[in-house]
Amino acid sequence: MISTGGIYKGGATMAAILPVAAAAMVQRGPTIATSSPVIWHFLGYPFEVAGMIAAVFACGAARFWIGAAQSVRKEHRWSLDIPVSGIALAFSIAIVISQRPEPLGGLLYGAGLGVLGEGIFKIAENYLKKAGTVFGIDTDKPVE
Predict the structure, then answer these.
(1) DSSP readout, 39-108?
(2) Which residues of 89-126 are buried (b: 16+ CB within 10 A; e: fewer)?
(3) What whole-number distance in Å separates Cα of residue 137 and Cα of residue 69?
(4) Contact of 37 with 50, CB cutoff 8 Å
């Protein structure tokens, strides 16, 4: 015959361990740690680092990849592209500091402002061409 005493002994041992384990957990407190975002400060203004990194990366990537293959971009790199990219990055940083978005929101703000920077570049390029025709300057030549 098969004895069933072993099962009951194991169950009794487990029943004795549970109150001891519960008492040990009460003394320790909760073991689940909550996470909080990393906060940095710029000129006294707090912002979340993850949103800032996402916004700056997205804005820089949008500014670089949209016009990387355009020949006009190479001609006016120093006179138009660098200042417009700087303005787009500055606006991205300012929006992240003021709105404190999560990383996805920062990514969308940065990409959107990078794309808007392309529109600003096109407007500035048109004004440069108009000014060139008014003053008789050849704007198709690269600046040296």
Answers:
(1) EEEETTEEEEHHHHHHHHHHHHHHHHHHHTT-HHHHHTIIIIIHHHHHHHHHHHHHHHHHH---HHHHHH
(2) bebbbebbbeebbebebbbebbbbbbebbbebbeebbe
(3) 25
(4) yes
Backbone angles phi, psi at 46, to 5 degrees: -80, 150
pLDDT per residue over 86-128, tens digit each?
A: 999 999 999 999 999 999 999 999 999 999 988 887 888 788 7
- Can you tell me whether residue 142 is helix, strand or coil? coil
d(CA 110, CA 56): 6
Q: For the whole model, what pTM was predicted?
A: 0.63
- CA proximity to 116, closest of 101, 143, 95: 95
Q: Which amino acid does the sequence have at 12?
A: A
